[in-house]
Amino acid sequence: MKKIFLSLTLVLVVGIVLGYMIGWVLQDSQDELMQPPGFIEEPLAKREVALYFAEPQGRYLLRVTDGISGCEDDRDCVRALLERLIAGPQGKAVRVMPATTRIKGVELDNDLVRINFSRHLIDHHPGGSLTELLTIYSLINSLSESFPYLRQLQILVEGEVRQTLKGHVRIDHPVYADYALTQPPGLGTGTVDPTREQQDYHEIERLIEAATKGSN
Questions:
Q1: Which domain holds residue 88?
Q2: Which residue, of 2, 74, 110, 165, has the fewest CB within 10 Å?
Q3: Contacts (Cβ under 8 Å, ≥6 apart) of 75
Q4: pTM of structure
Q5: CA-to-CA distance for 76 and 171, rounded, in angstroms?
Q6: Is the residue at 19 inside a domain?
Q7: Residue 101: CB partners within 8 Å, gap ≥ 6?
Q8: In what side-by-side order are the strands of the sheet with 112-117?
Q9: 110-139 pLDDT, tens per residue?
Q10: CB 180 within 8 A of CB 206
């Protein structure tokens, strides 16, 4: 009788243990089924943009096609484009902005884009009428072509409107895109064409005048 009782007790204990073990296994399986699927974030597609850098001798602008990624709204994309301009070209072209320049703010207002740069833009800029024009029209041409609804650019430095970039070309009002500096100067086959050279000089004067138009 005692042996029968011990056998029944052992069977009961084993049954209870097996029941707990089966319950744990079923609970774990149910928890796995109830877990939400993992969210996989797809990388943003690259956006093609046009960038303008100076040609090796710094006489005119060269157009380069590139892609920017990691941006969703236009303000972030504009910032990404500006950072590419600051980073400089990968080929033989020349940067038109000091590598130390920082972007402190981007504001979009209908067809106007206001860019707030750090002081490095002017402190480390080499200056000169043509070089300043290359910088200004590299910015507005790249922005206007990549974002067609942006037609005007207002350059700020440390949040303030400055009269000139480096003493030559005024930037105290918005400027519009102009592609005159995307054409090589009028040089013949190794000799200077005085007529075309004079036209190039007047073209630079015209751009300076266009940049200062409306500032008075």
A1: 47-212
A2: 2
A3: 106, 107, 108
A4: 0.70
A5: 24
A6: no
A7: 86, 117, 118, 120, 121, 124
A8: 103-109, 112-117, 152-157, 175-176
A9: 999 999 999 999 999 999 999 999 999 999
A10: yes
